[in-house]
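Our preliminary data section would be incomplete without showing what the modeling component actually yields. Below, a chain of 296 amino acids is followed by its predicted structure, encoded as tokens that our downstream tools consume directly.
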Amino acid sequence: MSESSKLQAPVLVMLLFIMTVQILALAITPAITASGNRVFEDPTSASNPIIYVLIILVFTALLLLAVRLKQTWMISGFILISIASSIYYVLVAFMSPLLALLPTLAVLLLLRFYPEWYVIDAFGILVCAGISSLFGVSMTTLPALLLLFVLAVYDAISVYKTRHMVSLAEGVINIKAPLLFVVPKSREYSFRKESTSFSAKSSPTDGKKRGAYFLGLGDAIIPTILVISANWSLPAAASYYGINLPAIGAMLGTYLGFLLLMTTSRDKPQAGLPFLNSGVIFGFLVGCAAAGVRPF
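Predicted structure:
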């Protein structure tokens, strides 16, 4: 296999992850909508993205504090509790609350005792689809657009300026927390044995020594929120397989933004949301224009 093919394969895999998340999120949205589960009581409220961002800031601050104090057990416990809540909240749309406890517990035990890359990736696809659908049906398109804009700015600042998201990524990888998609560079790679540093003090060749590429789950969740929001909250003047044109445009825009992101160095930390959110918003607006739909 040529060097070019080796570089392209991880890109295609990560793109496939994002596509799968969006298709699965669209597939489970009717069940989530029918269950009446929503994160926010009023989907049209402009305060929804503010609440979402505040939750992210608090979550990030707590994790960074635990990393600085070197309390890895605290980080792991906090993340697993958050994950359990997310899994359970999605599962109760499909089964009884008591029955939903069993698969939730099974997933947590697997992630805790065998966090290999393929387990992490399979879990990531499922949880991203569930969270995207939940938040997507909890916001109409205007609050969703505001959320994407604010998070794109925040992501750029946290990666390139303060770099606290880079420190957090290192901590997450080194404790094997399931908050990233992992795409190995070779068949021999084991995420359980990986120790990664993205430090600015590292040499330029350090990135090549890493055994995998990483993509944050948020890079799949955040753009998909707009896809789901567009599909349920806007009139379906024209739809294909139950997906309206604004949502289709948003999906295609996500993929375009991802491909632009992949033109940057994959051996250095990059802020994904400025590319992905710009793409999904552009595609969404084009889809609205094609459908003759006013998004606001």
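The chain has one domain: 3-291. The first strand starts at residue 180 and ends at 184. Preliminary results of this kind motivate Aim 1 of the renewal.
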